[in-house]
Each structure stands twice: as structure tokens, then as C-alpha cells.
Amino acid sequence: MPKAEARGRERRRLMTGDASERLKLPAMGLILVGSINALASLVLILGRLATLLKGAPAPADPDRRLGYELWNVLSPAVGLLSLLAAPLIVYGAIRMYRAKSYGAARLAAILALIPVTSVCCVPGIPVALWALVVLHHPEVKAAFFNPQGGADS
């Protein structure tokens, strides 16, 4: 029981502790989401490319053929958008972790929230919402803009 109590105290301290401590867990979540996002995007793009190079025949049914053609165009496009957004998510999350750039932190959370820019949207949406809620608190905003934090935006 002492370990469970210690974990509970630590969790409460992080939730009610000073503002810079409150930023760390959602920032780590965004770093993880951005990293998974980059890997998933590469898998999506390379998988689609391998299928196209293999030369799989298109379905004969016109409705299924339309879906097949849309998937051939949309999946690499979404993968590319997601791949481009992943470094921005990770960068903004690192800035959030250090309480250095409020704008970059918000951008990272918003990008992780949008399913088109984040193929990793299942964990991305709740983590991004959590980050936005934490960023919205006045004491957290103050941590970004105080002279000791060295905030740049």
C-alpha cells in the first residue's frame, strides 16, 4: 500500500503542483504521439508505394474501383501531411516541456488533434485535448511568459 499511496501523492502533486510541472506529462504525451505519427506515416506511405509497385489489379466493380482509386490518392497525401506535421508536433511538445514557447506548444496540440495531420489520432486526440486544457490555465500561461522561463513567444 505505501507504493500506491506514494504514486497517488505524486499524481496529485503533478496535477496541482507548479505550472511547469503540470506541462511535463502532456508534453511527453505529445512527443510520443508525434513520434508514433512519423512512424505510422512512413508505414502508410511505403505500404501504399509497395502495393502500387506490385501492380495489384483494380477491382472491376465501378463503385469499388472508385474507392480503390481514391485510396490510392488520399492515403499517400494524408501520410505525407502527417509526416510533415510530426516534427512540428515533437518540436512544439519539447518547447512545451521546457515552458519556452506557448505558440509552438499550442500548435503542436492542435496538429495532434486534427486527424488529417495525425494518422495517430486515436491517442492523439485525447492527449492533444489534455495539452490544450493544461495550456489554457492562467498559471500555466504565466509560466511561458515570466522572465525566469525565458519565453520567446
Structural class: mainly alpha
Q: Please report the total strand number as a whole number.
A: 0
Helix content: over 70%
Succession of helices and strands = HHHHHH
Radius of gyration, in Å, reads 20 Å
Strand content: under 5%
Q: How would a crystallographer describe the biggest sheet?
A: none
Low-confidence stretches: none
Question: What can you see in these coordinates?
Answer:
This protein is mainly alpha-helical. The protein is 80% helix and 0% strand. The protein is built from six helices and no strands. The model has no long low-confidence stretch (mean pLDDT 85).
What can be said about this structure in brief?
The protein contains six helices and no strands. The protein has helices at 2-16, 19-54, 62-97, 102-113, 121-136, 138-145.
Keywords for this entry:
about 150 residues; single chain; mainly alpha; 6 helices; elongated
